[in-house]
Amino acid sequence: MKKAVLLTAFLLRLFQPDARSQTVNAAPFVIPGLREWQGSTGQFTLLPSSAIVLEPGSAQALSGTARILQQDLQQLTNGLAFPVKTGTPANGDIFLSLHKTDTSLGKEGYLINSTPHALHIAAPETRGVFWGTRTLLQVLEHDSLHAHFPCGEAKDYPRYEVRGFVLDVGRKFFSMDFLRQYVKFMSYYKMNDFHIHLNDNGFYKLFGNNWDSTYAAFRLQSDFYPTLTARDGSYTKQEFRELQALATSYGVNIVPEIDVPAHSLAFSKLRPEIGSKKYGMDHLDLDNPVTYQVIDSVFMEYLSGPNPVFTGPDVHIGTDEYAKEAAEQFRAFIDHYIRLVEGYGKKARIWGSLTHAKGNTPVKVKDVTINAWYNGYADPVEMAKLGYNMISTPDSWLYIVPAAGYYYDYLNLKTLYNKWEPVQVNSIRFKDGDPHIKGGSFAVWNDRVGNGITEKDVHDRVFPAMQVLAQKMWKGADSTQSYAAFAARAAGTGEGPGANMRGKLQGKNGLVLQYQPGKPVAKDNAGARAKAVKTAGTTTRKDGLHFNGGRSFVQMPVPEIGYGYTVSFSIKPAAGNIPNAVLFRSPHAVVKLRQQQTGKIGFSREGYDYAFDYVVPENKWTQLAISGDHKGTRLYADGKLVQSLQGKKIGIAGKKDSMLIVQTLFFPLQYIGDTTHAFKGAIKDLQVWNSADKIK
User: What is the pLDDT of residues 257-270, one digit of tens each?
Assistant: First the structure.
């Protein structure tokens, strides 16, 4: 019934006369911006009868792109299904084709020709057509009806070949679901290189100067060395193959990194004899032949056989920050593993450190790409003279280290927008078009192991950076649009159809959801009212909704709300609630009436448990509000601030340093109560606001 009402409203609005001026259309706003645009008048309109039509000679090659576009349009238009056909486009159709003869667009460029009758996306290669569909989707996202594209011709192509992002999953585990969502998110912004740093370790000094207790992890399933695989989070081989297959279908190259011979404590914990007694156990002993035997086996496990785990064209072998005194051994090690991965048909990427590790031992240059991150380790001018390809990954511009107090917590986006693009490698700027600079990549490094940072916190930092850096790596500088203007328009562009990793909800006057027993849930951001999806084990009474413990819940129409929220409710707990009794739950977090054995209200997410210094009184009504942003989480009782969980620091044994503990919360809304451990008591007057600290 709901879908029928939405469709009727869509059709009524769609066919109203268009009062817009028939002036020449300006270029539509997309991220990254179009390289070339020739506007005409009028607009293409997506109709309920529209189809995605494939040119017959291109149908097989473009079928995957068409299916993804079909799914995305269905998400964007509240369930309208656009069939995929082969043949000639009719009125309102989207036409996809390959034109191999147009080589001026390169491997990723595309053309869009939009008329009032049809919209045509063409490119020499499949990936170019796919990028054209991302442009189409972004323009439709900005249109109030998700139906219009301005008439005109776009010719779009990237300024840089590699447009990347590096994620350290070694020191902080990210779920496979997160990685899969990130493939789609990056693709939405035409970012084509996802570098996954699969192993690393914490800092020795943060773990009492004890290598045995220092955190280390390797995130892939290993059959050669089963105990190598991290126990607190890992990916099966098949999961990783499927991630790469998904990425390929979305135009993204997954670059797996096994980081050796430094940052390698996970391997020396597996085989202590290969750890360096001279430089520290996070360094491999490069004079020990067993080191080569073990690391050869690790790489071969993922590269060899008829069904290798690493399926893409590039493999990163690490090679960074090793002891300078062992430069010759280090150079020999780099050369060995470049040649090993090349022996399996891959191209090698390295961090390099070849300026730091000067020596006479030759290191292969041809077809090898360096992530140029710190000029003291690999001076980019020297690397260019040697002939290396480079991906600009400058730490002084592009390193996010969450809540660490050094590098960037959030990147300086205005400066990046105005001054940076990949030819800038820290303080050195190459000439535009220098062939050694293949592109750029920004990075998240999770140096502070155990500091409370979550996937949601990382995404909060990455999202705005992805928008700005996509712009700078595809289009480059744009003198026609200030950063303020770009940021204002970028705020209306999300993560892709159906995606809401930021948990953003919109509502009338800031109220996005409210619930009273026996009354509808107001879900204003959808423009409709919807009842709670499901209830179990609850009783509706005049004074509120009563929960009986155990399986006792109300399932809500939204899963969570992201930073910048206030959730208020009145609660009357019964006597005798058990530890960990649940008030609210979602897949990413849980709010508890009694946090573990403390008896106090608190929350848990991603293995971290927090408690406010407050016990909710039994058998009486209390009005509570929990408010959160990217800095922390606050509890109010009866309109007064009880406690702010923000800015907590813990000392590091034997050091003057300290570590900030992040105490943020994406508020869970999927269930009031729980499917297994609900609290006992009553709730009423639930209101969810998309503004922080909205206290009555």
Answer: 999 999 999 999 99
